[in-house]
Every structure is written in structure tokens, then in C-alpha cells.
Amino acid sequence: MADVQAKPFLLLSIRAEERAAVNEQASFVRFLGVTAEELHRIELGAEPLPAIDLDDWAGIILGGGAFNASDPEESKSEAQLQAERDLARLLDIVIARDFPFLGACYGIGTVGRHQGAIVDRSWPEPVGPVSVELTDEGMADPLFAGLPRAFAAYGGHKEAISRLPDHAVALATSVAAPVQAFRVGQNVYATQFHPELDLDGILTRIAVYAHHGYFDPSEQEALGAAAAAVTVTHPMTILRNFAARCRSAGAIQS
């Protein structure tokens, strides 16, 4: 088996918008604490996902984007359907092996749907700052080590998880969305909020997705001001903790 310290991370991206995709990758690089060469990006939907040998990677991350797991099947593009097929096959392997995986925003719906959660449009949140509170299980989970019970994060989504399956562990919640984070097994995680987003990142997303139905384009300036009015520093710790767990031999299942 290759040296764990030498293994790169894999970022699965669904962002067709180049500015958002580049910003997302740079944000994950920064807050994971890795070099650009240590985070390889694959654009899902652009072409079929190649075979993934989990032994080649320290951990896998699935970011957000314009796809929604709860989109009506007839409305989904071929790119979205291809991404969903590829992710379902990959998650079969990841879950069976309990391999380190972190899904953010679109990732929580994708992992949730794969595991039998109810993913629907009952709990949307506007783009901008959100208030997150850890559950008792979240306070005890190593991914959230160093975080206070309540903290601010950035998010924005049309869909969310209304109900988790019994085998999933709820790690974080909020008034606006009951499932803000959960875990399956010991190493597969998902968050509704974006742990990679700082102010520059959320302002980039607001600009790029102004015409994607998340908000009225006329609200762009007000949303940016609301984002700037809140200090968001704690969610990035999640990424540092994830990287540390992936780098440790104990978190890698062979």
C-alpha cells in the first residue's frame, strides 16, 4: 500500500461555471491545508467518471453546484443523470468500505438519497450566512473537534434532508434546515452548509449563480451585504480535521 502521506485528495465537481469551479477548488485547497497538486478535480457530467481506485486517494470530496437530487427526473439534463449514475456507483464502494468522504450541499442530498433519506424542497435556505448547532453526537465527533456548539456558516440551497434513515447519525441542525450534517459509518460525512466558503467564496457564488433561481437577481447586492455582516471562521476547521483524519492510517480502511 502506498504511503498515506503521499496520497492526494479527489474533488468531484458538478460546477459547469468555470469561475465558481476554480474558486471552489482553491477554497478546498486552502482550508484542507494541502497544495494545489494534492487536490485533483474531476468534473462530473462532462464525461463518464473513470474507475476510481480508493487506494489511490487520501479522501474524496463532493462539492455543490446547480444540480439537485430532488429535481424531477424529466427535468434533469443528461449531464446531471450521468453524474448521478456515477456517484451512485462510487458511493456503493465508498459506503461498503467506509472510506473517508465528505459531501457539501449537493453532497448531502446525494449521500442522503443514496442512504434512503427523504430529500425534498421543504427546507430551502437563502444564499448567505446560516446558524448551525451541533447535536450531542456532533460535539463528540472528531470531524467537529475544536468547534463551538453553535457557529455561523455560509450556505444556500433549494433542497434539504427532511428525514434521515435510522442508521445515519445526525451531527448538526438549524431552525431553517433540520439536518445540517450527518455521518454514515465512521468516515462518510455530509454537510448542508459549505465548510469551504469564506466571504470571498460566498460573494463569488452569489455573483455566479445570480440567475440560477436561488434568489431574485435584484437581491444580489443585499445578499452580499448580509454575508459581509457575519464573521464565518469555524466551518473551515471541519476541512482541516477531515484532512488530518484522512492522512492518519487509522482513518483509511484497506
Measured between the Cα atoms of the first and last residue, the distance is 9 Å
Query: What is the topology, as strand order, of the major beta sheet?
Result: 2-1-3-4-11-10-9-6-7
Structural class category: alpha/beta
Taken as a percent bin, the fraction of beta residues is: 15-25%
Q: Give helix and strand order, one letter per element, not per position.
A: EHEEHEHEEHEEEEEHHH
The biggest sheet amounts to: 9 strands, mixed
Average pLDDT level: 93
Q: Considering the protein shown, what is the CATH homologous superfamily?
A: Class I glutamine amidotransferase (GATase) domain
Number of strands: 11
Named CATH topology: Rossmann fold
Describe the protein's architecture and organization.
- With 254 residues, the protein is an alpha/beta fold.
- The protein has one domain: 3-Layer(aba) Sandwich (Rossmann fold).
- It has 7 helices and 11 strands.
- The strands form 2 sheets. A 9-stranded mixed beta sheet has the order 2-1-3-4-11-10-9-6-7, with helices on both faces. A two-stranded antiparallel sheet has the order 5-8.
- Helix 1 runs antiparallel to helix 5.
- The protein is globular.
- It starts with 8 loop residues before the first strand and ends in a 7-residue tail after the last helix.
